[in-house]
Design brief:
Elements (H helix, E strand, L loop, with lengths): L13 E5 L6 E5 H6 L3 E2 L6 E2 L8
Antiparallel strand pairs: 1-2, 3-4
Length: 56
């Protein structure tokens, strides 16, 4: 029997998010964005939350 694939690892990839302060895009972990965690913009160093509706 072949080993099972871990379905959690399939969702751990980077997605692009737009900063609400400077409007520049940066890459963040998909799982972190889905959880609603605070993200830090690497361009302006401000903390923002990505809207889950904007990901889809």
């Amino acid at each position: 029997m072949p080993p099972r694939k871990d379905s959690k690892n399939n969702r751990n990839y980077l997605i692009k998010c737009t900063c609400s302060h400077c409007s520049k895009q940066s890459e963040h972990s998909f799982t972190r964005v889905q959880k609603g965690s605070a993200l830090m913009c690497p361009h302006c160093s401000k903390i923002f939350n990505q809207d889950k509706a904007a990901i889809a």
